[in-house]
Amino acid sequence: MTNRPPQAEDEFKFGWEEWVSLPALGLPALKAKIDTGARTSALHAYDIEPFGPADKPLVRFSVHPIAGRDDVEVSCSAPLLDQREVTSSNGESENRYVIATEISVAGRIWPIEVTLTDRSSMTSRMLIGRQALGPEISIQASERFFQPELNYDVYLKGRRAVAPKRHLRIAVLSREDNYSTRRLVEEGTSRGHVVEVIDTTRCYMTINQNAPEVHYDGKRLPRYDAVIPRIGASITSYGTAVVRQFETIGTYCVNSGEGIGISRDKLAAHQVLARNRIGMPATAFAASPKDTSNLIGLVGKAPLIIKLLESTQGKGVVLAETQKAADSVISAFRNLRANFLVQHFVKEANGEDIRCLVIGGKVVGAIKRKAAEGEFRSNLHQGGSAAKVKISKEERETAVRAANALRLNFAGVDLLRGEDGPKVLEVNSSPGLEGIEKATAANIAGKLFDEIEKRVQLRAPKRAKR
């Protein structure tokens, strides 16, 4: 294979129409018109949108590679070289974006410049001008298809090769400048993506049947290929509404609004886990103060764990070591009109739990968290320590089942090692990266982007209909 335009000794002929490939754009088969009267090459494109930093601009666009088949769509992105005024054969001038890519014909590959324009009314999805042709290529204007013919089966029958990784535009919904947010930006940027941090509470929405939108600081947000929700517990209701709006638009969200909402409601989460026969500490819930003694009896004797339904990072979780202490805590929570659970205290866990990080249905890292001296909560935010740990097959399967049950593609599943097997304490829909990356020396953020790229590469970002 040569990485240059064909030379004279190759006896390379083109007719007025040939099949070509643009492999870097994920377009393995296109019919192209050869036009030596045109200087610049052109590719059919729509939804053309520049993005990225000013010093390294990018452009993304969608292509219907088959004339007359608007249901076949390929999403592309490329570095933006220039904006150029181009005059077509009918004398009309148009300001077009210009990209550089590679063209492949009969196993030969060479670089060309291409302008992007709407060619939906034309049979040929691409026009090849003289600038893209080697000086020794022989053009037979009365003939067509001197080179091997391709076909559209690669699009229609699902046999298309894995698409090249394209530049993605990704939003991180986060209100905090913390380790996790910075790592996501750093990792995504290192892969050539554009990662933008969006304050969830500054988003607002237009909700209608024709053009649902998300606005931010007075402007409609652009199309994102993916959204990574990092929704704080204090804004769960509004944050999940924003995520649902992105889902309505058609954006891929790493975790759904529904999954985040269920994971934050500990009662609902435990009910889902129970429905799926996933091990957990015995748990009880009641609204009436008359049921206090029966509530405690359902989960066993003291010591007991009493936990607010929307507690996070170990906050709102109390260990009641005696029956009297349990009665006092329950009474205090009820006087505050707080909803809470009562759980069996797993003594054999000895102040330790296992955090399993699940991405795309696989455990990609696991750490053992140990409570600080005199503390029963092992959360790192409560002073606990963390170390890499090897987990059993049963623990791995339990973590994956728990994440799947709550419909989370990215989750931190906290397990206790009970005498009768692993028990799920909690499923976190916005797990922190710092503790697990430092303890395991693994690139967890990278594994999340692997999953995003796999889910999004063949998916075109959706634009709201107007």
Short description:
The chain has 466 residues and is of the alpha+beta class.
Q: How would you sum up this structure, described in words?
A:
By secondary structure, this protein is α+β, with helices and mostly antiparallel strands. The protein has four domains: 8-156, Cathepsin D, subunit A, domain 1 (Beta Barrel); 169-263, Rossmann fold; 282-345, ATP-grasp fold, A domain (Dna Ligase, domain 1); 349-442, ATP-grasp fold, B domain (D-amino Acid Aminotransferase, Chain A, domain 1). The chain contains ten helices and 27 strands. It has helices at residues 153-156, 179-190, 236-249, 257-264, 266-275, 292-299, 323-335, 393-405, 434-440, 444-456; strands spanning 13-15, 17-22, 27-34, 41-44, 46-51, 58-63, 74-87, 93-105, 108-117, 126-128, 138-140, 169-173, 194-198, 203-206, 213-216, 219-220, 226-229, 252-253, 283-284, 304-308, 317-320, 340-344, 352-359, 362-370, 385-388, 410-418, 421-428. The strands form six sheets. It has a nine-stranded mixed beta sheet, with no helix packed on it. The protein has a five-stranded antiparallel beta sheet with strand order 25-24-23-26-27, with helices on both faces. A hairpin with a 6-residue loop joins β14 and β15 (213-216). α3 (236-249) runs antiparallel to α4 (257-264). The longest helix is centred in the middle third of the chain and has 14 residues, at 236-249. The mean pLDDT is 86.
The assigned CATH architecture of the largest domain is Beta Barrel
Taking all Cα atoms into account, the compactness measure Rg is 28 Å
Q: How many domains comprise the coordinates?
A: 4
Overall mean pLDDT stands at 86
Number of strands: 27
The main sheet comes to:
9 strands, mixed
Principal-axis shape: elongated
**Beta-strand proportion:** 25-35%
What is the rounded distance between the termini? 46 Å
Helix content: 10-25%
- Helix tally equals 10
Low-confidence stretches: none
CATH fold-level assignment of the largest domain:
Cathepsin D, subunit A, domain 1
Strand order of the largest sheet: 2-3-10-4-9-8-7-6-5
Which class of secondary structure composition applies to the elements? Answer: alpha+beta
Q: Could you name the CATH homologous superfamily of the largest domain?
A: Acid Proteases
CATH class term of the largest domain: Mainly Beta
